[in-house]
Amino acid sequence: MVYIGVIGAAVCSAATVERAEAVGAGIARRGGVLICGGRGGVMEGAARGARREGGLVVGILPGRDRRQGNSYLSVALATGLGDARNAVIACACDALIAIGGGYGTLSEIGLGLKMGKPVIGLGTWRMVSGRGEAAAIITAGSPEEAVELAFRAAGGHFLCSS
Amino acid sequence: MVYIGVIGAAVCSAATVERAEAVGAGIARRGGVLICGGRGGVMEGAARGARREGGLVVGILPGRDRRQGNSYLSVALATGLGDARNAVIACACDALIAIGGGYGTLSEIGLGLKMGKPVIGLGTWRMVSGRGEAAAIITAGSPEEAVELAFRAAGGHFLCSS
Amino acid sequence: MVYIGVIGAAVCSAATVERAEAVGAGIARRGGVLICGGRGGVMEGAARGARREGGLVVGILPGRDRRQGNSYLSVALATGLGDARNAVIACACDALIAIGGGYGTLSEIGLGLKMGKPVIGLGTWRMVSGRGEAAAIITAGSPEEAVELAFRAAGGHFLCSS
Amino acid sequence: MVYIGVIGAAVCSAATVERAEAVGAGIARRGGVLICGGRGGVMEGAARGARREGGLVVGILPGRDRRQGNSYLSVALATGLGDARNAVIACACDALIAIGGGYGTLSEIGLGLKMGKPVIGLGTWRMVSGRGEAAAIITAGSPEEAVELAFRAAGGHFLCSS
């Protein structure tokens, strides 16, 4: 089974939430497990989309109280790790899809790339290193393409026949 | 929903695995989510029992490779945290059931009690502090009683009508 | 250089603090680095003793605010990890000395033993596994003996000629 | 006392190491504690510079073996947390100076900004969010300016009279 992380801000525009929902639905339709930070905004949108399609959604929360999770999680994991939980999200996935996003998302992109995980970007951060090289983010133009690229990058042989 | 952690050693006797399987089955029958360390022995036995009854099982692994998880996990989370993942297991649960166990289990009992989580013991460590006080472990005489005590301690109002 | 962890409760008797202070002083006199949880009680006593002898003391704090550390730390590390910082304390040491202690200490003893670190006990937890075996804690009768045993267990070749 | 984190890649050009060394020396001269990842490249350069000036350097290592640290650390902390140690580095500092850097550095910049820590950039990543806003990195033109900006941003009242 493929594990896809969806990362993005807890506070964002309605249009971004909509895109997250489409991404979550696409992951579930392909039989992927959706990993996210468990909070609002992009995380909630993606979780709602995935659950609507019968998918499994894991929220990896920073705090100690499971009730901080949004209401669409199949499993809400209260880690108590604070922002160090971002490393757990990156580690647990086969590929990451970044949608919009703030500094937390930026850190997850960095952690994912450091761990060698494919990162798909949908209207997210663009970064250029001190040596003028762009970060290895794979740009997607739509939620559907983002899901397609994530599953392809995560390894086609993992694909479920959902 | 109630989240019950089952903790115990990766290497243990067949009788201990059997007890873990009965505990896992009991948790699933009551509609609880089973949280464990995702490896072999007690963790595998509990996971197998829970899945047999249609339960949801989350394995929180120390390493970076999801394939280290046993084959009965609904979700295998590769945390990359090493032994610090024991704190995540304790934090994510409403109550813990310790079955037999080695030093890792000992640490999880300590972390659970530190966080104020009820800990049920089934043939596990007995501890007396430097001041002569026993640790607040609730002793169970059978897998069924351990599950009963764990759900009661976790708060009866969480009980699902499975 | 040898790194010795001193673990114990944040709230304890004056006699226990005094023992912690003697342990801290002994570690510093032998040129060891003292690692502790950075809070009050045993941690503060040990830190005070070590600083009095010119030693280096690192406090590994659970929270995000360095000012939670006691005033005798050479370095106060705010980890933000919550109780998962107990695993960092155990990992960073060559040997641990447990003085009295509550559930947090219990977890650190478990984590240390799991990682193969020698654990010296001074009026601390006594534990017997489900199979009737005592945990491999090395019992000391005095602060001086605890320090002696910790340095010996950590490997004599690390000994500094202070 | 002010704690300044220096972040950057373990493998980098000689010119970058030289800049790191000047940054480390400047931090020590002002009486700051230098926090870093404890490995080679930028981390080693900064540590060497700080120790040359009599400074205190803490290396927060990802692995379990303290000997992975470079030889200029006052304290080498083996955390065993893997890449999650990046969150500890960001949390432990009052301000961060990013010098060049790869994906690990990128994650530390994100974590630092998420935690509200000032981040000074010296030839490091430039980032623009999906909404077209640049990340709040304070750009420095030289090692000296980076140190000056870091101490100023960390709060002048912390300044030591070294």
Descriptive overview:
The structure is a homotetramer of 162-residue chains. With 162 residues, chain A is of the alpha/beta class. Chain A has five helices and eight strands, in the order E-H-E-H-E-E-H-E-H-E-E-E-H. Chain A has a single domain (3-156), classed as Rossmann fold (3-Layer(aba) Sandwich). The first copy, chain A, has helices spanning 14-29, 42-52, 85-92, 103-114, 143-154; strands at residues 3-7, 33-36, 56-61, 75-78, 95-99, 119-122, 126-128, 137-139. In chain A, helix 1 packs parallel to helix 2 and helix 1 (14-29) crosses helix 5. The radius of gyration of chain A is 14 Å and the shape is globular. The model of chain A is unreliable at 156-162 (pLDDT under 50).
Keyword list:
Rossmann fold, 162 residues, alpha/beta, homotetramer, globular, disordered C terminus
Number of helices of chain A: 5
Strand content of chain A: 15-25%
Counting copies of identical and different chains, the oligomeric state is homotetramer
The third-level CATH topology of chain A is Rossmann fold
Please state the second-level CATH architecture of chain A.
3-Layer(aba) Sandwich
Helix content of chain A: 25-40%
H-E order of chain A: EHEHEEHEHEEEH
Rg of chain A, alpha carbons = 14 Å
Broad CATH class of chain A: Alpha Beta
Q: Write down the domain tally of chain A.
A: 1
Mean pLDDT of chain A: 95
Structural class by SSE content of chain A? alpha/beta
Largest two-chain interface: A-D, 34 and 34 residues
Largest sheet of chain A: 7 strands, parallel
Shape by Cα distribution of chain A: globular
DSSP E strands of chain A, number: 8
Strand order of the largest sheet of chain A: 4-3-2-1-5-6-8
